[in-house]
Amino acid sequence: MILKPTLFFFSRKLVHLESTISVQDVSPINTPYKKYTRAVDGVCTFNFFILTSNDNGTNIGTETIQPDGSTTPFTFSYSRISQNQTSSLLNITLTRVQETPQFTLSLSTLTSSKIQYNLSCIALDILTTSPVLINGFSNTFSAYSKAGYLKLEGLDTSIFYDSSIGVSCSISCTASILPNTNIFSISISSFLTTTSIDSLTISVSTFSNKKDLVVNYPFGQYYDSISATIYPESPYNSNVQLNSLNSRILFTFTSNNTLDDRLFLIKYGSSDVGLFYFPISSNFNSSTYLGFILSTQLNSGFQIQFYGIYGNTFKSDFTSSTYTITKYWSYGATFPTAYSLNNTVQLDNALLNNVYFERTSYDQYPLYLRFYSLITSQNYYSPYGFLYGNNSAHTYSISVPTTIYNNYSAASYMQIVYYGSKFLTYNYSPTYNVDKTKVPILKGLEFINIRDIIFIMRLKIESFYGVKDLNTYLVSGTLNNGTFEIVVNSISSQNQQIKIYDSAYLYCSYTVGNLVSIDPVTFYTKDRFYENQNPVSANDIFNITFLFNDLDITNKTIYNTMYFNCSTGTRDTQFLFYLNGDDAQFSIAAYGILPYIVGSFSSFWNDTISLYQIDFIVPANTQSSNKYPYNLIINNAISVSNKAFPESSQLRVTSNNVDLKGPIFKRVEKSTNGWIIEIQDEINGFRDGYIIIRGSIDNSFYNFTIDPRNAVSGDKFYGEYHILLNITDPCISQDYTITDVLLFDSFGTNSSFSITSNSLPYYYILNPFINYLYDYTINVISVSCQTQNKDLSPPELLSFSLSTKDNFDVGALNRNLTITMEVEDLESGIKSDQSPFIYLSDVFINQLSFRSTYIGGNFTNAIYSCTIEIPVGFGYPFGIYLSVYGFINNYGQYRGYSTELLRNNPLFDYVILTNQTYTINQPIISSYQRLSTKESQLWLYGRGFQEVTSIKIRYIEDGTIVNTTLKSLYSSAILIPLLKRSYQPFYVTLFTGTKNSNEFLITPYYYPIPNYEPTPTESPTTSPTTSPTESPSTSPSTSPTTSPTTSPTTSPTTSPTESPSSSPTESPTITPIPTNPPQKCKGSPPCGGPSQGYCFNTGCVCYSPYVGIDCLSKIIIVPPPITNNSNPNVEIPTNNNNNNNNNNNNNNNNNNNNNNNNNNNENSNVNEITFKSLISIVSLRELDFNGKPILNYTLEKWILSEINEFKNQYLTNILSGTNKSTNISVTIEWFNQTETVQFANQNLTMNPSTLKYTIEMTPYNFKSQLNTLQLVMSASLESSKTNDICSSKQFGNTSNGDDSNYVKVQVDDHSVYGRFIKRALIDNNIRSIQNVLLDSTFNTIESSYQSQSFIGIEIPNFKQSAVIDPDFSILLSTSSQDNSNSICSKSNNGLSGTKIAGIVIGCAAFVAVILITTIYFIKKKKQNSKFINNMNSKLKNLK
Fold it and tell me: What percent of the residues of the chain are helix, what percent strand, and what percent coil, each to the nearest 5?
C-alpha cells in the first residue's frame, strides 16, 4: 500500500553542522510516514533509506547513523545495503511499539550531520467505520466459490493501513485490499451441508476491536441440473481407453440457471477433487457446461454425480453409470540400447557437443535437453535428431553448440530426458573458466510510458562477458557496455523479476523493492509504472455510464462507449478497459474471441463533454450477465473489477446464443487413405484450422490446413472435409495417426487435440473428438502396401550449401538466407511428398526450425530449397549452426545430418559467422499497436528508430502514397499520425537520411466512424486538470442492433471529489421533427382486416408480417443475399415457393393470373417471368440557398470491407473545396429475425429478410454556410414480360407512425417500395431532413413493363458528420385494386394496376446500387436469358 505524495504527513530536515558529510532521504516515492497500527500486534513499522555522502569527494569510510536521545518506546536498526567511494546507502527500520499520533525522529551521523522525520502511528478505531457490501457476490472461476467487494466507509485512506485491518468470515474466505482505497476483495468458498444457512457474517477487525457485517448467504438460490451426458457414453463406460496424453472422460450438463448465478457440485466416487468445468453455451432458458474427470486410476470403477443447490443445501440430480478406465495413452519408446558421447569439438566461438544413441521404437513424445550449469532447456520434436533408420530401429544423433565459457569449477552436466525419466547424462568441460566476480552490472533502469499500459524499459548494462539474449534490444553501445530498450506491458510486468545473464551464464537479478543503483539512487519499485504521476484509486472513479446498455449480442457484435469521471485525474491520465478481465469462467474462450482485438481498449479525454471516454466492442454470442465482467486498469498497473463499482456502473448484456466452445468433429469416417470428417459449429461457424498426421514407421509429416472454402460439401456450420493421403507405389505399410488438431470458430474460440502435448487443464476439455472418445483408434488408419522391398539404405545427401555464410549481419534489413540441397536414393527412391527440416541453433540452446520446399528432381533424386529470414540478433556474436533432418525414401528409411556430420564433409556448409558486423541503427519494424479504423495515429514497435526522419504510407485500396512525419520517437517505438483513414490494410515504411526500413503491413480492425463526440449541454471546461463533471449528451453516430438506453446528459451536482448519487438520464438535444399528417385508412376492409392491421389517426398501422399503407403486403422470407465484391449492389432472388409459403391466402389471385396468362398467345406455355429492380445513387449535389445545384459528384470506386457474415461496408470518397477528401461509407446489415433498433431516438422494427443501411459522411467543404447537399437516388423496376402488363408509381407519406416518405415503383404485381426517413444525425445532433420527388427534373424511364422514379434527400449544412440509417425488406402484395395512374399495354388496361406482390425497400440516403431479382415460374428460361442480357445493358446506362 502506498500513499499519494500530496497526502504525506511528514517533514525531512537536512542539517549541516560544519561537516563535509551530507545526509538525505532517498526513499522511493510514496513511502508512507503516517500509518495505522498493525492488526496482528498493534505496532507501526517504518522503513526508509538514507544516503550519506562526502561532499569533498573523499572516501566516506564506515559512516554510521543513530537516533538522538532515548529509543523508548521504539526499536531502531539500520543496515548498509550499498556503498561506493563517496556515498553510503543505509536502510532504516523503526518499529513504534505504541500508538503515537505524531512524533519526531532525529537521526545523526558520527560527524553530527542530522536528518529529521515527523511520523505518525495511529490506532484505528474500527467501530467508527461502516462495512458495506458492494453489489453482493458473483461467480468466480472456481466451481464452489463467489467473490465480492466490501467497502469500509469512514476509513481515512490518507493513512497507510496495508496490514492494519483483518477480514474474516463465518465460513472460509480470503480478502485483499485494493491499493489506495477502502475497498476489500473477498472470496468465499461454499461447502456441502445438510443444515440450512441463512446468513454470512463478515468480520472486520483491528488489534483491539472488530465490527461485523451480516449478509444473506450467497449460495442460497435454487438450481436444477436438467440433464447430463458422459463421454464416452454407455455402453462404453466399462472399458474406457484414452488415445492421447490429454484425453480424459468428459461430461456435459445442462441447467436452468443463468451464467450469472451458477453453483454445482460434481463428484466422482467420493471425491470432488480433480474436476474442471466451464460454460460452453447458453440461451434465455438454460445453460450448458463442459468438464472433465481428472482420474489417473486404472481399472477402478467410479460413478459421476451431479448436484444442484436447493436453498442452502445441495441435492443430487443425476448419477452416471459406473466408469472404468482401462487404458491411457502409453509411452511406447524404449530407452537407448547403446549410446556414445563421442567428443566435444572445440570451435572458434563455441563447443560442439555430439550425442549419439540407438533406440528400437519411437512414439512421437519429444526428447528434453537440459543443461544444469546453463540453466536452460529445449524440447526436441521429430524429425530432429533422427539420423537414420526408421521408428522400429533407428540411430539418434545431435550436435549441441554451447558457450565456450564455464562458470562452474566442476564439470557441467547435460541431460537428455524422456518423459521425466533421465536416461543420458553427459559431462563436458568448457574451454575457458570465468571470473565469477565479473557479473553483469545494471547501471541504469528507466520506465517510459508511451501509451496506457505500454512502457519502454530502458536498461544500461555493463558486462565483461557480454550480455546474453538481449541482442535484439541493443539500441546503442555494445553487448559489453550498452543501452537496451524493451517494450513491456505494465500489467504482466508488475511483479516480474529482472534477471540479466551474460555469455558465461553469470547473472544479476532484481526483484521488486531492490536497489538498482546508488549513483544516482534508483530502486526497482512496485509503483515504478506510476511514480511520476498523481496516483488514482478506485474511490476516485465515479459516474460510470455507457452509451448503450441492456445490449442483445445474439449473433451480432456491438460497438459501445463508456464514460466516467475521475476526481484525481488530468487530461493525460490514461485508463485501460478489459472485457471479461478477471471473470475466469469465461477467460478460456471469451477474449481472443475477436482475433484482431487483444481484449483491451484505451481511454481518451473528450474535451467536448469533459469526460474520459473508452470505445469498446462487445463480441457476439458471449455471456449474458447483468454485471458483464470488465476491468479498469488504473495507474497503468492496478486492475479494478466492475464488481467494485455500484449497480449504476454495470453493463447489462443478454445473448440467446452464447457460444464458448470451439468446433468439433460431428462425424469421423475412416477410408483406405484417410478420413472423412464433418466439422460442426452451429452458432459461430468454423473459421479455419489444421490437422497434422504422422507416419508410425517413417516419421512422415502431413499438415492439412482447412477452412470452409475447401469443404467438399456443406458450409461453415456443418461442413464435410476429406483428409486424404496420397499413397503411391512403392510404399511402406504403416499406421498413419492424427497427432494434432487445432480448430477455430469465426470468433477465435478453439478446440484442440494432441497426443503428446502436456498443456493446461482446459485443453483436456476442448477436444474435437468428444463424440468419439469410445474409439481408441479413431485417429489411426492402417495402410498396407502390396510391394514391400527391404531397402535398409537411407537417402544420401549430395550437396548442402548456403547463399551467405561469412560476415552475416543479423542486424541488417536483408537477413534472408537461402539453403539448397540435393539428396539421392538409388534403391527405393525419394518420398516426393516429404520435405526435410532445417534447424538453426545458437550457443544458448535456442533453436529455429523451417521446412524446406521441393523444387525438382526425379524418382531417385530430389532438390530442396529453403529461404529463411533470420530474426534480428539471432546468433550474434557466436555464430549460427545448422543441421538438417527428415529425408525419407519410399520404403520408410529416413536420414538426417547433425552439425558435426555437415562439418566433417568439406562439400557441406555448417555454420554462419555473425561476429564481424552487427548494425544497430537499421530501422526494422516488427509489430504495431492494434489499430481501429476510427483512430488517427499509429504506434510502431521495432528497433533502430532513433534516426528516423520521415514515413511513407502506401494505401492498398487506391494505390496512393502519403508522406507523413513522426509525433513521438524512441529507439524501439515511434508514433506516427495517419492523415487518411483506411478500411483496408496499408503499408508503412520508415526513412532515415541513408536507410529505409522494411515495408510493414498494417491491418486495421473495423470500428464505425465518425468517432462519437456528443454535443455538451454547456460549454466545456477549459482546464482538464480539474475533475471532469459532465456526461454525454447525444445519441451515437452509429446504431447498434438493439434498443439502447437513453444517453446521460446532465452534470453531477456534487463536487468533483464526490460520487454523484445517480446517473444522468435525460435524452439528447433534438431539433423539432415534423410528423406526417393524418391519412384515410385504405383498403376494403380497411387495413386488410383485423388480422392484418388497424386504422389509426395516422392511417393504417400493420401487424407483422404485414406492411404498407394498406397492410396488404407481406414479408417474404428469403436466404441472405450474396455479397457483391465490387459495389453495394444487392441481388435477392425469390420464386413461387417463397410466394406460396408467405402468401397462402393469395391462391385465388394466382389462379386468375394463370388463367389470364394462358390466354396470352405470346406467353403461352411459359415457365418464368423475371423482375429486376434497381436502387441506385445517381449523384451527390451541392445546392445553394435557392436550391439550385452548383456542384455535382458521381460516386464510384467502392471498396468492400466484410465485417461479418451478415454485415458489409462499402467505402468511397470525393474531393470537395480545396481538394478536401470526404469519406462516404455504406454499411449493409442483413436481419434473419425480427429485431428493434434505434436510430436518432426513433425505434425501427427490422423484419426478417431486412437489409439495414448505415450511411456515414465525414466533413464536407461547403462553398457557403447557407448551402446544403442533395443525394439523388433512382428507383426502377423492369419486367421480362412486355405485353398484357401495367406499371405505376407513387410518392407520399407513410402511415405507420414512423414519419417517413415512401416511393413505390410497380410493374404488374411486383413493386419496389422505398422508405425515406425524415431524420438524420447531423454533427451528432438529431435533425429533420426533407425528401423530394425529382421526376420532373430527370428523364425517367416509363412504359407498361418498366418504371423509374428519382428522389432527392436534402441534407443540411454540417461541420463534422452526417449519418442516415435506413432499411428495406422483401414483400409480396395481396392487393387486387387498380391504380388510376397505371401505364398498361394491350388488354391489360382492365386489369388491376396495383397488384403489389413485390419488394419493399425502405431507404433514406446514400444507398448504393441495390439489385433485387424476383423470379416467378411463368416464362421459359431461354427467353429469360435474352431478357437479362438486355436488362443488364440498360442498367449500365442508368449509372
Answer: 5, 45, 50
